[in-house]
Amino acid sequence: MAQKSGERGEGGGEIDEEKFARDIGTCYSSIIKRNEEIFMNGFDILDEFSNEELEVLVKLILDKGSLTETLSVTEGYKKYNPDHKRYVNNIKNELSEFAANTFVSMIRGHGVSYREMLTDVCKKTKTSFDENASLERIENALLEKVLEDAWENLSEQQKKEVLENTPIGNMGGFAVGAMLAAFRAGGAVSYQLTMLIVNGIAKAILGRMLVGAVFARGAIGLLGGPIGIVLGSFAVFFDVSGPAYRITVPATIYIAALRRVHQSEQYKEFAFA
After folding, report:
1. What is the pTM of this model?
2. What is the number of structural domains in the chain?
């Protein structure tokens, strides 16, 4: 039985019920806030995306989730679309809910964390990764798998044309190995390869590449002649079984690639020039 204010507790001191209730409430709020921080860790990169970058995710959700999506009925979407940055939390929640639908234990009744979505997509795409690694390391493993699969999806003639018209062809060694080595090394070619992934996903969803100044300036080197060939190979990532995966697979690849773009020196140079 709860003790009233003025009654003595086990230690002999008086218990202030109101203060006790406030302390419990504060503690509970802190736990909830901490859980939300853990839950949104990874999704928070969406806060940095421009409206054009977010448009890819919004259109993906509306087109591929037409029968089950709830984004279009949220107050944020109805009030602010196409100013997607104004309702970015609704976009995060929608992706989290779709990711939850890929798990057997859907009875949980709520979304999953970005890390859970990422690792689930890695398993779906047969990406080799360390589950204990950081988000960025797991994302990079996924992006390497994407590049490798996109390359393997090209014909021999298409591969030859790409190699003859990109810096990768001058690196020597086996094409895939050279490409992945360039991706891991960072620098200009790595940035361009990451842009290739971003625009491959964007073109598949929007029917065009992103046109922002950062993308226009950063893409010129690699995304010239052979871009149409390579961009077409990204369609394979939309041809996955399960309606939720048709959203979570391309969305996760896109988010991972854009995070890498935003964190690159080249992005900072183009964005703030």
Report:
1. 0.79
2. 1
